[in-house]
Amino acid sequence: MILLYHEEVRLFIRTLEKSTQSKTLRGLDLLEKYGMSVGLPHVKKVTRMLYELRIRGVQEIRIFFVSQQSRIVLLHGFIKKSQKIPQKEIRVAQKRWEMLTRI
Question: What is the pTM of this model?
Answer without folding.
Answer: 0.91
